[in-house]
Design goal:
Blueprint lengths: L14 H28 L2 E2 L11 E2 L2 H18 L7 H23 L3 H17 L6 E2 L5 E2 L4 H19 L5 H19 L5 H21 L8 H21 L8 H5 L1 H16 L12 H7 L4 H23 L1 H29 L1
Antiparallel strand pairs: 1-2, 3-4
Helix pairs in contact: 1-2, 1-7, 2-3, 2-7, 2-8, 3-4, 3-8, 4-5, 5-8, 5-10, 6-7, 6-8, 6-12, 6-13, 7-8, 7-13, 12-13
């Protein structure tokens, strides 16, 4: 990416971005308790075992509240005439809903790893056909991927979707990382030339929904996002990084890798470790990065702080590559988000007493 020189990147958040984030948060705060109560009545709880660190049954369908608050927010924006119609947005919302449904079925009934992977590939293929594609690498004037566009796009979407699922092993970890990643991708999507306000809108709404979920997910958690929430949010991060970041300037191709450093590092490390042992990369174990930190003596809260800090630093680096104006806005919004997270945690401690 060329130096900005006299040209300044001006970030303008539309009313839809601001209102969407607020609506998503408010809806989520009301929806999560309803999901908790429903899951307890129906027995949809995560039972402790030797691989898990919680000691009592916890609601495992938090993804229902995350998905519902996100989709209802878009419905509210339609009534407010803020909804930005477009084929890519329709594809992303459809694909993410199908990914959510797959995760929900897995949370309730349990599905085989190979079957889930097959359905994920089918969903990613559908979204690819609807236009969400990585068609070129914007280096050296642009390298057309040609026939490799399809497998690379599938690898990215399926990989990031599962990467979020992989880090969902400590109270508040996946939600915190997703929130930071969503805000970062949204800010960069607005700062890009050309900008992608639709991708930014999805990012901000996801962040609002996730912050509401974190209100009840910080340690000690009252609810887990489950596969439904992890696959849904991971899918959204993957697709908005394609539509909002990768299709722009030269350095844009590396930005998603920087922004999503935490989930990418974990899924890469976990997959290579399992393959080296002759195991399937999709078979769950207790040797993820967050497990390593727990075994090293860090508490759940400290583990969340460490890995979320890594996500924030990675986001700052990506924003810095976009320019000084972008990094300024990044720190403003991340500061607000972190302040809200600490506030939610503090309120939870007080109410517990």
């Amino acid at each position: 990416m060329k130096r900005e020189g006299k040209r300044k990147i001006i970030i303008r958040l539309t009313h839809a971005h601001i209102i969407g984030t607020i609506i998503a948060y408010i809806l989520g705060v009301f929806l999560v308790p309803l999901v908790i109560n429903f899951s307890k009545k129906e027995g949809l709880v995560d039972i402790p075992n030797e691989r898990k660190i919680h000691t009592k049954p916890i609601s495992r369908i938090g993804g229902v509240a995350i998905w519902a608050s996100t989709m209802l927010t878009f419905l509210c924006l339609v009534f407010l005439s803020y909804y930005p119609y477009g084929s890519l947005l329709s594809g992303i919302l459809l694909g993410s809903s199908l990914m959510f449904l797959l995760g929900l079925i897995d949370d309730v009934y349990g599905l085989g790893a190979k079957f889930k992977l097959f359905i994920q590939i089918a969903i990613a293929t559908l979204v690819y056909l609807l236009g969400v594609q990585i068609n070129e690498i914007p280096l050296f004037g642009g390298i057309d991927l040609g026939i490799f566009s399809y497998p690379i796009t599938l690898l990215w979407i399926v990989g990031i979707s599962n990467a979020v699922n992989f880090i969902d092993g400590v109270d508040g970890l996946a939600g915190s990382v997703v929130t930071v990643n969503a805000i970062t991708l949204a800010i960069i999507a607005v700062a890009m030339t050309p900008s992608s306000p639709i991708s930014a809108l999805i990012g901000f709404i996801l962040a609002g929904s996730m912050l509401a979920f974190l209100t009840y997910n910080f340690n000690p958690a009252k609810i887990f996002m489950g596969d439904s929430g992890a696959l849904f949010s991971g899918f959204l991060l993957a697709t908005i990084s394609i539509t909002g970041v990768m299709k722009a300037a030269t350095l844009a191709i590396i930005l998603p890798f920087v922004v999503l450093a935490v989930p990418i590092m974990d899924i890469t490390y976990s997959s290579l470790r399992r393959i080296s042992k002759g195991k399937s990369p999709f078979v769950a174990d207790a040797e993820h990065i967050h497990h390593k930190l727990l075994h090293a003596g860090f508490s759940q809260k400290k583990t969340v702080v460490i890995l979320t800090s890594v996500a924030i630093i990675a986001g700052a680096l990506a924003s810095l590559l976009m320019g000084t104006n972008t990094i300024k806005h990044y720190f403003i919004y991340i500061f607000v988000v972190v302040l809200i997270m600490f506030g939610l945690n503090f309120i939870k401690v007080l109410t517990k007493k």
